[in-house]
Structures are given as C-alpha cells and as structure tokens.
Design brief:
Layout lengths: L3 H11 L8 E3 L1 H7 L3 E5 L10 H9 L3 H6 L1 E4 L3 H13 L3 E5 L5 H9 L3 E4 L4 H15 L2 E2 L6 H7 L1 H9 L5 E5 L4 H13 L4 E7 L4 H8 L22 H7 L4 E5 L1 H13 L7 H11 L9 E5 L6 H7 L5
Parallel strand pairs: 2-10, 3-4, 3-6, 4-5, 7-8, 7-10, 8-9
Antiparallel strand pairs: 1-2
Helix pairs in contact: 1-3, 1-8, 3-5, 3-8, 5-6, 8-10, 9-10, 10-12, 13-14
C-alpha cells in the first residue's frame, strides 16, 4: 500500500519539474450546491493532464540500468504524453502504444515530447498485449498507466496540494478510469483530512469502479464506451482498488451530462477541459452528488481536439 510518506517523497521529487496546479473558486457552482466549490486544474500541467505526477515519479525511481534500456507504456493518450515528457526530461527512450482511435491532439502530444508511437487496436487489452510484446523484444521497462505503486504515489501529490490550498476541504471528487489518481488522492486525504468525503465519478458506459465495489473486487467489463476517452479501461486496477475499497464511493454521469459540463467549463468558466476532465463538474451540475461542505472537483486534463468537441454537439438541446 502507498503511504503518506511515499506521496511526500514523490512531491519532493517533482520540485522544479512538475509545478503545483491552481485551485480556483467557482461561485456559479456554489449556487448549485449551496457550498463553496473549487476546481483543481490539472489541465494546467505542461502535458495537459495530471499524469505527469505519476510518470515523472516512476521514471525517476528507476535504476540507472533500467533507464538506459528505456521505458514503454500503453495509453489512450495522457499517460503516454506524460511518460514521453518524463523520459525526455531524464534522457530516457520512451515507446507509447496507443489505440488506433486516439485523438490527434494526444498523438501529437506524445510526439512533441519525443515519444515513439505504436498503434494497436481500440481497447486497453489490445494496447497491453502489444506493449508486452515490444517490451520483451526490446528490453524495455513497462510503466503502467495506473496500477503501479510509484504512479499512485505521484498522483497522490495532487491530494497534498488540495489540503495545502484548502485546509477546510470537506469533499473531494475525482474521475475514475483505472484508478491511479483516485487511489493517490484518497490515500493523501485519508491521512490528512480523514473526515473528508471522497467520491469517484465514472461515465455510465464505463463504470468499472462501481462494478468492483459491488463485487468486492475488480470486475472486467465486457466493453466500455463514452465520449470521455480517458476513462475507458475495462477494469479498475487491482492495486488501485485496494486503496479505494471502503474509502471512496462511486457515482456515474450520463453522456449528456458530460457534454453539458464540457461546454459549460470551456465556455462559461474558461476552463479548457476534455470530457474526461469534465465528469466531476457534470456530477455536480446534474445533481448526482450533493456536497455538504467546501468541495473540490478535480479537472483531470484538457487534451482534446475539434473532432472530439464536434462529437459532443449531438448532446446539445
């Protein structure tokens, strides 16, 4: 299990490499829920998403021998960009296996940071199988997008920042895909604000965390589908679930609610988010969650393109 000490060590390792992100008060959302609501803007990172925290931590903690051999991951885009960034920063080769359906903005982001792209199928399993094949053939170290001790510790630094920025925080809401961000933030908040409520938000068509809570263990979904392309693993991670079980609850949001929140954030609030980053706001604006005190909604990323935004237009009334 990742500890608060692990997360604090990760935070020290990010100094000068990954800057803290702002916490912004949103009075318009206050009126919706009757309590102060803040956005934690993880879209403000250099690669446009929270994934930098875990990727830099994981690469930094590798031995010199493993760094020289290079790293590899399988990613729908944000973790791939983050790993490419971390590898470039530390002089390490990075290979990123991406879905054939990856948004152009995320593919270009990986290349911008010097990552080598390989495309494989449309599901996380397709990417995973191809990644293992390449890693074995070329001697690369696989750094998973979420189910990894160092990734969880790195993502948990967002939780440290939330408590530093808003010591009175009563409720933290985060997106859940594989669960790395959720697990890290949950670990930090339970140590520092044990009375705070913790809620994970998933698309209705990709509710792996909720299914795992019901079953008491990770459950492989037959398929996942959502405009929130960063939240589509077929299962929450085993390691991440062990950090979340009994600690955080789960809610789902509709595609229409995600689209509405994405447009509201980008238009009215001026927050350049992707659909995956808008699910927490969607949960508040659609009334799925009802905060009972100062609340933080994590906007996990902002990497999207016009093609994705055009696909949301069908949800406009």
């Amino acid at each position: 299990m990742v500890t608060l000490e692990d997360i604090r060590e990760a935070a020290k390792g990010l100094v000068g490499v990954v800057e803290p992100t702002p916490l912004v008060h949103m009075p318009d959302l206050d009126a919706t829920v009757g309590h102060p609501v803040y956005l934690k803007l993880e879209n403000k990172h250099a690669t446009g998403a929270f994934k930098m925290r875990g990727a830099v931590t994981a690469v930094r903690r590798l031995s010199p021998e493993l760094r020289r051999a290079g790293v590899l991951t399988y990613s729908s885009g944000n973790h791939g960009q983050a790993l490419a960034f971390a590898a470039q920063r530390l002089g390490v080769r990075a290979v990123i296996v991406m879905p054939e359906t990856a948004p152009t903005a995320k593919v270009e982001g990986v290349k911008r940071w010097g990552g080598e792209t390989v495309f494989a199928g449309t599901t996380s399993e397709h990417r995973y199988d191809k990644a293992l094949e390449i890693a074995e053939a070329e001697g690369l170290t696989v750094i998973p997008p979420f189910d990894h001790h160092d990734i969880i510790a790195g993502q948990g630094t967002a939780g440290l920042e939330i408590v530093e920025q808003l010591p009175e925080v009563a409720h933290v809401v985060f997106p859940v895909g594989g669960g790395g961000l959720a697990a890290g933030v949950t670990t930090a908040l339970l140590a520092l604000r044990p009375d705070a409520k913790l809620t994970g938000v998933e698309p209705e068509g990709a509710a792996g965390f909720g299914a795992a809570l019901q079953a008491g263990k990770p459950v492989r979904l037959d398929r996942t589908e959502s405009i929130a392309d960063g939240l589509l693993p077929l299962s929450v991670g085993t390691i991440t679930f062990n950090h979340l079980r009994g600690r955080a609850d789960a809610v789902t949001v509709s595609e229409a609610a995600i689209a509405e929140a994405t447009f509201w954030l980008r238009g009215d609030a001026g927050v350049m988010t992707e659909p995956s980053g808008a699910v927490t706001t969607a949960a508040v604006r659609s009334g799925v969650i009802h905060p009972e005190g100062p609340t933080v909604l994590i906007v996990s990323g902002g990497n999207t393109d016009n093609k994705v935004l055009e696909s949301l237009a069908k949800f406009k009334s």
